Every structure is written in structure tokens, then in C-alpha cells.
């Protein structure tokens, strides 16, 4: 019991994130086929909405992930956590724009408010599961909640340090049983907090229109994800050239300053150029040209 053990999250999976994304991309088939098999126009429309939404938001989610893999140098979940623990800087602080893009895409992939267009009751009764009841409806709902829990798990591991907590867990691979239980408790606590954030957003934010939903994916999240990827790639390539040992802490501070500035100016540009896409506030006296040009 007192001897050191090695606590690992995903043993033996060097391409862990590719495996996770490959499995999550299959979810669209269940929703589309479930809506089509109902022989109901509301269910069919919910299935079509879900397929468009899940496919569109997988791209910015992947771009948000690529910045993390560039920083960690691996797709292994354990390596990603270890790099955050060794540096002491979580990727949510080192890459705020990538973090925001990934979280928004995770909300859309889980079909949680304000992205629950596939099952919005005001328009489609129940969406793709309108005609289902009993155990069949339960399976749909359980899959939705498991998607949210999985998204919370990935957010914590990729951007919030996993089991790492400053001054508590350390950064060594080998820990005692007490340290392992402590790390598991910290990881679970972070996941619960992210789930509570999902719930708080559901209670607080109004639903997007479907045209806003798709414009947000293709015209905002995708460009911001590309900007984050390019900036992170340039910064880490410069650091490898100037500081191969990765020992200069001033580089960490400078890179964080650049990424935060990129996040700020990126969102300012989005908010000023596409107000109808980013704002749900009712507007009057809008011309058709104004709506078409921004959506």
C-alpha cells in the first residue's frame, strides 16, 4: 500500500484522441436513423438538423484540439496531462481561444442549450425522439447525457490539467495510493464542475435560430479555430528554434500574452463584423440585405 504506483487515464492508447473522435463521430448515425425510422416529419427534421449540426461543429472542435496536441507533442491523454502538470500552466490559460472554441463546439456536439435545435420542443415537438417512449426514449436520453459527461471529461483533461492541482498533486508519474486517490478526486471534482457549467448555461442562455447556429460554426468558430492553430504553431516553432531546452520561463509568459491578445482581438473582430450571428436580441426595421450579408 505504501509503495509507489503509476496512475494512468487511458493505458496503452498512443492515439487516444483520434480514438475518442472516431467513436464520437458515429453518434450522428443513431440520431439520423432514429429520426428517419419514426416516419414523422418532426422527427425527420430533427434528424436532418442534428446531422448538419454535428458534422459542422466537429471541425472547430478538431481545430481546438490540434493546438493542444502541438503544445504537448502527443495525442496520448496521459502525455497531455503530464505536460500541463510539469509546466504548471493549464492549456485553458495558455490557449484561451482554442479553449473557447472547443467548449462551444462541445456544447453543440452534445446538443445542449443553446444548441438543442435537433429536439427543440417549440418547433419540433421532441425532435428526433418524438415517436419514442419507454426504454427507447431512455436510451436516447442516456446517450445525450453520456455525451455531455464525455465532453466534460475531455475538457478537463485537455484544457484544465486533468488530475493536476497546484501545490496538491505534484507532477510525478509515480504516486502513493493516497496520492492516486487524491488525483482521482480532483479529476472527478473538475468534471462535476464542468457538468454544473453545462447545466447553468442551459438555464441561462436562449436558443439560437438554426441559421445562427450554422453561421456560428462555419463563419465564426472555424476561422477562430484556424487562427488559434496558426498562432500556436508559429509560437512553438519559434520557441523550438530559440529555446530548444524549453527552460526559459519568459517564453511561457510571452506566448501566453500573445495567445490572450489573439483571443481578445479575434472576438472583437467577430463581434463587430457579424452582430446578427452573435446576438440573439430581437431587432426591428432590419433590411433584407443586412440579414443576408451577415448570415
Largest sheet: 2 strands, antiparallel
Categorize the overall geometry. globular
Poorly predicted regions: none
The string of secondary-structure elements, in order, is EHHHHHHHHEHHHHH
Our count of helices gives 13
Estimated helix fraction? over 70%
β-strand number: 2
Radius of gyration, CA atoms, in whole angstroms: 21 Å
Distance between the termini: 61 Å
Strand content: under 5%
User: Which strand order does the major sheet show?
Assistant: 1-2
What is the residue-averaged pLDDT?
82
**Structural category:** mainly alpha
What does the secondary structure layout of this molecule look like, with pairings?
Layout: E1 5-6, H1 16-24, H2 27-37, H3 41-72, H4 77-87, H5 91-94, H6 96-109, H7 121-124, H8 134-159, E2 174-175, H9 177-204, H10 210-242, H11 249-273, H12 275-278, H13 288-294
Helix pairs in contact: 2-3, 3-4, 3-6, 3-10, 6-8, 6-10, 8-9, 10-11
Please, could you describe this protein's structure?
By secondary structure, the chain is an all-alpha fold. Helix content is 71%, strand content 1%. It is built from 13 helices and two strands. Strands 1-2 form a two-stranded antiparallel sheet. Helix 3 runs parallel beside helix 10 (210-242), helix 8 packs across helix 9 (177-204) and helix 10 (210-242) packs antiparallel against helix 11. The longest helix has 33 residues, at 210-242. The radius of gyration is 21 Å and the shape is globular. The mean pLDDT is 82.
